[in-house]
Amino acid sequence: MNSRPFLLASIVLAGLTSTLGAQPHSDAPTYSKHVAPILYKSCTSCHRTGGIGPMSLMTYKEAYAAAADIGDAIGTGYMPPWHADAPHGTFSNERHLTEAEKKTIAGWLQAGAPEGDVKDLPPAPVYATEWSIGKPDVILEMPESFQVPAKGTIEYQYIEIPTNFTEDKWVQAIEILPSAREVVHHVIVYARPPAPAPGTPRQPSVLVYREDHQEPPPPPDPNRPRRRTGPMIAGLVPGTDGQVFPAGTALKVAAGSVLTLQMHYTAHGHEMKDKSRVGFVFAKEPPAEELLATAFSNGAFVLPAGSPNTAVPSEVGFKESAKIWGILPHTHLRGKKWAYRLVHPDGRIEPILSVPNYDFNWQTYYMFAKPLVIPAGAKIEATAWYDNSAANPANPDPKVDVRWGDQTWEEMQFSAFLYTIDSRRLRP
After folding, report:
1. How many domains are there within the chain?
2. Is the same domain home to 151 and 83?
3. Residue 12's pLDDT is what?
4. Which of 32, 57, 176, 285 could form a disulfide with 121 if both were Cys (CB 3.0 to 4.6 A apart)?
5. How deeply is 5 buried, as exposed, middle or buried, from its count of CB atoms within 10 A (0-12, 13-18, 19+)?
6. Which residue ranges of the chain lie beneath pLDDT 70?
7. What pairs with residue 40 in β-bridges?
8. Which of 375, 403, 229 has the alpha carbon at shortest distance from 299?
């Protein structure tokens, strides 16, 4: 990508505070005609009342008040939070600005952030007040609130919620809504179907995992019963919102399933109660393809103390042809970049996802605009790089070796993905 326009925009944006309020040129971009459409498209889904952004940018008054922050964020590339390096149109949920859009905002700010003619203002987007996926068909809530202490380490909580579904449900969208988002680091939702009747054949998996890359089992604990959680169906991590699945696909939640919420709480200096909810929007008709959610990982790694660039690989193979609809990379505070590639059966290598500036605070489910076709016998290789040195400002302790662990100051190498299997297509 040509960096010169971005560099020029950054230089312009650096002097914003001295130009705000200046007399605009007649041909300068205005908020109403030029800037509002950009903010509405790329910013206000988070920067609105009730959104996760620190300020609203829904009106001219709000955008003008935040003009210096807008300049800093766009000039440094911090906003919008998009970290994949890929041609425009590769992913359906892209959030980055084009070079032309950056220039427009830079010109508006340099001219003093003029409002322009309000008749040029496009209709403001309308957002749901609570659920980003729209009104759910069913909302399932934790049976009791969990008291998060003011300090200390909190072990993962596993909380079960019966669905009471009397028939199989095809789910088109899922959202997890904590009541105390500040103390909820992440949530993984599993759906455990009823135990099959004796003698029922089990459908074989088409996936092949590297055994030496799997998370090492925890030490035996006689006081901790073994859990049967079922398949993963949804997750909430920093930077994510509700998930709407691609047209023609849906996740199946079997009748009588029980949800298990793996809750990772973090203390934030004061006690809080959380009672998270899970909302489902059901498909209007059975899908053409059943969407499956799973993950592959490598838990057998060590990040040496002080090491600035340790690579950790993982992989998953496919016995049958399939399609991948989205990938979510996950590490903790020492993770700095990711690369994924598809290795074809003939050895040909195809890069499929590069995240050169991974940000723990903005973890993205990268949804392909067109599903990634996986031939039988192919595999996906993922590599994550970590900075365990003092040069990493987010590093909790560069003086210790780091291994796999649940807590934020430990590490993970984990990739969630959504896929369908060609031979199990439900209808043409």
Report:
1. 2
2. no
3. 40
4. 32
5. middle
6. 1-26, 215-227
7. none
8. 403
Per-residue model confidence (pLDDT) at position 215:
63
Confirm if 88 and 97 have CB atoms less than 8 A apart. no
Whether 184 and 273 map to the same domain: the answer is yes
Residues 374 and 331 in one domain: yes
Q: Are 31 and 39 in contact (CB under 8 A)?
A: no
Residue 128 lies in a domain: no
| Exposed/middle/buried for residue 305 (C-beta within 10 Å: 0-12, 13-18, 19+) | middle
| Helix runs in 144-204, H state only | none
The per-residue pLDDT for 251 is 96
Same domain, 383 and 235: yes
Same domain, 157 and 115: no
Tell me if 131 is assigned to some domain.
no
Backbone angles phi, psi at 129, to 5 degrees: -75, -25
Q: Which of 201, 24, 17, 3 is nearest to 107 (CA)?
A: 24
Q: pTM of the prediction?
A: 0.83
Closest by CA to 291, choosing from 192, 195, 416, 136, is 416
Q: How far apart are CA 38 and CA 103, in angstroms?
A: 11
Task: Indicate whether 80 and 165 sit together in one domain.
Answer: no
**Residue 152, in any domain of the structure:** yes
